[in-house]
């Protein structure tokens, strides 16, 4: 029923009643003479009395009308929100993506479940990544986020907000999102080769990653970080960079993901700092005093560079009671030109020029320096790595100055 008609009718009835009540008791026809003076005095007193009597009914009628209007508005708003919530849970007959968060589509859970074959096809060994095949031949990567805690919700919202406005060839594109029964899903563009973590530490053990491919991955990752640090206003600190955050397409092009803990430079809070980074990738200053800057991302990048060189995990347990970091294990050996080839990943050992290997080792050593001030900027890292990548893989053969060494003792070129 249309609520406008009763309101209009009620308003009309109240107005008519009030108007009639204020009309004079004496009604003279055009053929009669004006009322005598005594009656005029009586009418004036009668109208004055009516003015006093009608004040309370007018106020009550106005309040009642306001309450009715407010109730109808609240009911309409609640009905609209309920309708939107029901849309997020059920699929429409057309099977199209509906709903918006900014300009980002919200995907029905039923559609997402059908496209991913009940979330049965894994793409990567970590992070709950699934392949989803939508209509019209569209394939996407679905990341499932579990947890009902408030911090998970903040991270989910943060990633959506950032990825809906950031556009860069080495930053992952977000196709859509879904929320269902406390579980959240992020739908990325398809990345056929999964994560760098899977490629390096999964069943293939890095066999698909040649020296040049690894350098391309390092360059692409550096490009993405340089964009965040140098070309965003304010600069964005990723805060959670790790090998599982680096997604690879069919040509091993890099797309950086996992922006749930990303913050604008200068705006980080204690909640972010307490959860920032994964084990083995967290810079020392973050652990000691909660300091999070662009140099914290540089440290995490240095750890990834060591992973690419050594083929080792960022943290390993040689024995059940011991835990060894790749930084503490590798850095003392990086400065030894003769020892360096023996600690390189056997998959790529002796497949590169020694001077190139030494240069990458020097860059990695600089990036993981304990003091943030000794670490280079991502721009410097990028410019030092590009000459090591062939032109056909996006690099350049142009001769460039090597990375300036903040710590001369650990820099071996």
TrEMBL record:
Signal peptide range in chain numbering: 1-21
PROSITE patterns: PROTEIN_KINASE_DOM
PANTHER family from the UniProt entry: OS01G0750732 PROTEIN, PROTEIN KINASE DOMAIN-CONTAINING PROTEIN
Presence of the UniProt keyword ATP-binding in the record: yes
GO molecular function, one term: protein kinase activity
Record-annotated membrane-spanning stretches: 54-78
All residue ranges annotated as the Protein kinase domain in the record: 115-386
Pfam families per record: PK_Tyr_Ser-Thr
Keyword terms of this UniProt record: ATP-binding, Membrane, Nucleotide-binding, Signal, Transmembrane, Transmembrane helix
Protein's name in the database: Probable receptor-like protein kinase At1g80640
Entries under InterPro entries matching the protein: Kinase-like_dom_sf, Prot_kinase_dom, Ser-Thr/Tyr_kinase_cat_dom
């Amino acid at each position: 029923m249309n609520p406008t008609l009763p309101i209009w009718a009620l308003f009309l009835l109240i107005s008519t009643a009030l108007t009639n009540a204020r009309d004079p008791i004496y009604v003279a026809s055009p053929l009669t003479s004006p009322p005598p003076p005594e009656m005029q005095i009586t009418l004036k007193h009668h109208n004055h009395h009516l003015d006093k009597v009608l004040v309370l009914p007018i106020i009550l009628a106005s309040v009642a009308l306001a309450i009715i209007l407010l109730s109808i508005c609240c009911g309409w708003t609640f009905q609209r929100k309920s309708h939107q919530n029901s849309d997020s849970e059920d699929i429409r007959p057309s099977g199209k993506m509906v709903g918006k968060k900014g300009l980002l589509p919200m995907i029905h859970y039923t559609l997402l479940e059908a496209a991913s074959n009940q979330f049965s096809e894994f793409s990567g060994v970590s992070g709950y990544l699934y392949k989803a095949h939508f209509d019209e031949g569209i394939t996407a990567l679905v990341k499932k986020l579990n947890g009902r805690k408030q911090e998970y919700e903040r991270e989910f919202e943060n990633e959506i907000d950032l990825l809906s406005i950031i556009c860069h060839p080495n930053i992952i594109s977000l196709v859509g999102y879904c929320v269902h029964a406390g579980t959240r899903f992020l739908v990325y563009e398809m990345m056929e080769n999964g994560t760098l973590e899977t490629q390096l530490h999964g069943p293939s053990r890095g066999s698909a990653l040649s020296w040049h491919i690894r350098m391309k991955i390092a360059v692409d990752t550096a490009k993405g970080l340089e964009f965040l640090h140098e070309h965003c206003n304010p600069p964005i600190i990723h805060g959670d960079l790790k090998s599982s955050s680096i997604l690879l397409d069919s040509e091993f092009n890099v797309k950086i993901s996992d922006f749930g803990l990303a913050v604008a430079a200068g705006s980080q809070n204690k909640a972010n700092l307490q959860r920032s980074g994964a084990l083995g990738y967290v810079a020392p200053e973050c652990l000691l005093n909660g300091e999070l800057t662009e140099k914290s991302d540089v440290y995490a990048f240095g750890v990834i560079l060591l992973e690419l060189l050594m083929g080792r995990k960022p943290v390993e347990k040689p024995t059940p009671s011991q835990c060894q970091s790749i930084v503490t294990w590798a850095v003392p050996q990086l400065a030894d030109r003769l020892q360096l080839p023996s600690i390189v990943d056997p998959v790529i050992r002796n497949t590169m020029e020694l001077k190139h290997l030494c240069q990458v080792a020097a860059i990695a050593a600089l990036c993981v320096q304990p003091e943030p001030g000794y670490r280079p900027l991502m721009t410097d890292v990028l410019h030092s790595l590009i000459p090591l990548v062939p032109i056909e893989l996006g690099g350049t053969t142009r001769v460039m100055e090597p990375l300036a060494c903040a710590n001369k003792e650990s820099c071996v070129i």
